[in-house]
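hi!! sorry for the late reply, been swamped w classes. u asked for the two structures so here they r. pasted raw, havent cleaned anything up. first the sequence of the first protein and right below it the tokens
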Amino acid sequence: MKAGNISQTAWKRSVRRQLNSRREEALFTPSMEEPCTALRMADGGIVVTATADTSGNVPECADYAILKAVNDVASRGAEVIGVSVQLILPLSATEAQLKALAGSMDAVCMQAGIQLTCLKAETNPCVNQILTIATATGEAAGDSILRTEDAAAGQDILLCGHIALEGTLRILAEREEELSGRFVPSFIRQLKEQKKELFAAKAIAAAGKAGAAAIHQIGSGGILAALWELAEASGIGMETELSKISIRQETVEICEFYNLNPYQMTSAGSFLITAKNGDAVVKALEGAGARAVRLGVATDGNARVITSGEEQRYLDRPAPDELMLWRERNCH
């Protein structure tokens, strides 16, 4: 198989057809597009969980698994309470690395206002890098759950955040020495400072209160994959403008340096949002300190159109994630 998410065809053929277990408490049906589990409790409350993973050999690598899982739970309208983490370490790992990982992850949790509720670690001869698996848990009221499938024709499609920032920061963490020889110190410093943008729970809550119908975090495969997932989950078409997509200059330059496509790079901490009144949601997001723009509109039918200047094209099926391809080339 190719690096990154398995294909939609493979998932439908070899995964979905095998999933026949059911419980009435489960509110979401498993799908390629849905990152969360939501369970209705006996008292009427709803527990939402999401799991994310990352790999790498620097302490910061684990942070991004936590951030992605936390943001996925928050995007369902839930208040995140805590996160549990499983670390699988190569035999070459040291106790000093483990200490640095634990400290970095706890600092992320403190900044996000949640608790690191469980941290287990083991070594495994089958891995050659640190593998982090994080599961975030939150709670939501019964009437506050947001679903990607609730996007509908006529709604505005918004982008919150800057695409590929997560992927850019992860490359910087792995290759800071190399990049420091290419870019001036202020460039590296300014990029590191943008990590705070990935803590998005406040912005997500503001979008929900302002009338967001659906919120979908941009993950593996980047914004182009996320647009496809949004359309697949809700059955909408779309008309979007490529030039409206927010991307930082630091991301552009690092992607050019490594010959990567930022539109197909993992972008945790940025979101696609649909709303009847997109202007109100953009205003709320900006009030929460987030970058937000209107990309286009959801339409009836199946056409998924991306406009770039005078050129129009149709959205392709998701391609392998560019960060995964970069790691495949550089991290063996």
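now the second protein. again sequence first, tokens right under
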Amino acid sequence: MSLLKNVFNILTDKRDIKESILYKESTETSAILKSLTDLKLSNAANLDNKKIDNHLKLFSIGQTGEQQVLFELQNAMLPYLILHDVYLEFEEYQAQMDFVIITHKFILVLEVKKLFGNIHVTDKGEFQRVITKNNRVVNKEGMYSPINQVGRHVEILEKLLKSNGTITKCPIRYAVTFANPKTILDLSKNAPANIQSNVIRHDQIKTFLKSELDKKSPVFMLDQQLYQIADTILQNHKQKPFNQESYVLDSPPPTVKKETSLSSAYNDQETDQDLKAMLVAYRLKKSQELGRKPYHIFTNKMLEEFLLKQPSTVDELLEIEGVGSKIASEYGEDLLAIIRRGKDLPVYEIAHSEAHSQLAASKEDSVDNVNKGNGELLRLSLVEFRTTRSKELNVKPYYIFTNRTLEDILTKRPASMKELLNIEGIGPKKAEEFGQGILELIKRDRH
């Protein structure tokens, strides 16, 4: 009976899908952008405008990347259905999928990333974002594996479709594409095979899909089955409501002047933290070059005076207790240049391994306990990470994490994502976006 049914289906149903069909457009991102814009234009006194501006920028960047990928998918001249921007809730699971592509041979979940910088994948399959300037690496940080992320989405989608019998043998595959045309993908030859074969640039999408369609598959589905899969997914798709309350401050500021004053004080606090990191980095570098202890360059007490008084001339520098003609003549111009340039100065460049060795050699001798437990080096690394990410996203440093969060990280030194979530000020969103980079710095500091 089953054989006769299959023969009947073959005779009565055709595979008329010859090129891509956009079966579901993305309306969610546009709706969020409109809601954010309307909220900003309302000029309500108790809105977190900085958070609104930040999210407007992030969603706009993400939308641009996905539109570039959609263009490639629609112009590949290959047969499949495209579902753009799908949010599934099934049992206790949730999955936000950028694209679900349904072909006659398989289903593909495509994750889109639009990041600033280049991507390096190590032999172990670890993803690193590399920032270069003038052909020189200025920052390298770990990032959460997008392969692991899209792999979870595949498991949830497969569980959904198999639970109601929509599919039985149809394979569900995955891929990650990077939509920034300037991004260079550097995959180690020894990286895991699933990463080498499934991480692509957005201009390689057609070649990738054609190659996948040429492979053998346990199924060769009819058009009717493709639409059935698409409809099942859409039946379980949810549109997340816009949470306006998340952009409202606990209480409106008493006056605009008060708000400006508080904001300015907060920004100054973050700027001082970054300036402190620059001065400490300079001290470490100089002590290494000269073979001296860091406190012979300047002490922690002098450091605090630099931050408090921020001298702009040699005469003002000499007024600081402990700074004599010798220190002023040897280091004065460097110190004044760092202080003058403040937050616009990139963190003084030191090789992490060299700095770590110098710290280990000198920590028991330092009367200032500058290097106790390598705390200053980790602090420097975390502040540098915060500064770099804030410039990439064009937000204030405290949007990455606050000084209070920084101190909690230095005290607890989390070793896992679970432990990181126990840090004050780190929620699931920040953990996903910045967590891997923070954990990598802590791990590196331990060795």
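hope this helps!! also noticed smth abt the second:
The first strand starts at residue 21 and ends at 24.
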